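Researcher: I need the complex structure. Ligand is zinc ion. Inputs:
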Amino acid sequence: MILSNVRPWGADPVDIVMAGSRIERMVPAGTAVPAGGRVDGGGRLALPGFVNAHAHVDKSWWGRPWVSYRGEATTQGRIAHERAERDALGIPSVASTTAVLREFLRHGTTATRTHVDVDLGVGLRGIETVRAAAAALDGAIEVEIVAFPQDGVIRRPGVLELLDRAAAAGVASIGGIDPASIDRDPVAQLDGLFAIAERRGVGLDIHLHDGGELGGFQYELIIDRTARAGLHGRVTISHGFALGELPPYRQEELLDRLGEAGISWATVAPVGSAPLPWRAMLDRGIAVGLGTDGIRDLWSPYGDGDLLRVALGFARLHGLRTDEDLAGAVELATSRAAGFVHRSRHDLVPGARADVVLLDAENVPDALVRAPARRLVVAGGRLVVADGELLG
Ligand SMILES: [Zn+2]
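Model: Output:
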């Protein structure tokens, strides 16, 4: 298939020639000779498919009637509320998970890392649910699973065994959550998680909401264990709000150590959180990914699955103004997030998976600040969205 007359990252117009699921070559617009189908890009801005580095596609009530929120607005309050209410809503369900993934795709997200709840109530059922939903979309959106102990690890005997079973059954990573404030035993949680990662060869992705020096202390525990276990490049800290809160001298020493350990960072750029030293992180080789977090679930009513809007939120939170910085925020949502879904390269380049999003926008900064409808989405060489709506 040829996607003709598009402007990759706002550059001069090209024809993108695809072979199977990959980009084969890119040639000046109007010069590609069609061997198969041709789709006219109309001179629109082209970006690589978005990569959602932090989602929870198993627990949304997307596509269902509105659910009013009644839980306490603390991390523990939300965990308890979700456990009390989810069965009545039929969570997890293949239908709702498919609805969320379709909405991601409609907004141009062609790969996602998703945390999937693993706990004593739901066991590993959520993982099977997400796999079934991803299969229903025929691989259009690639879904990488983190088995996530939302309800705690050490405080819930049996959860470490569930995580170990999930790892043995082929998830890409296992998760952790606030080893200090949820389990109140950070060394035990982290030792347990790292032992599984070493034994099973999976990655780690740890949700850390704890602020200030309590967060900083847990970064150090994670850094030490990552180095000791030889897990360079395989550990992610999600949220990690503390990093933006710590004083500059403390940030500096932690950034050096995080970079050396090859730890990556996923943020959903929440309103009111402390800005991250994101340029300094990138300079040290710390990958920064953007995520939607859960959308419309028992944690929060917010979110619509549009990662470009998350990038816009990131840009506003960090006070970005220059074209270079605005484009940088979009790169975090696309090309720079390759590692979060185990891709060596994700961009509009030959050899990459043919994931392309077209937007009516003058250039990349314009696309970011308006987040216009995705006119066309190609996923793995297949046309999946036209005029802003999913085909099939
Ligand atoms: Zn999350």
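Model: Summary of the prediction. The pocket of zinc ion is lined by residues 54, 56, 115, 207, 238, 293 (CB under 6 Å).
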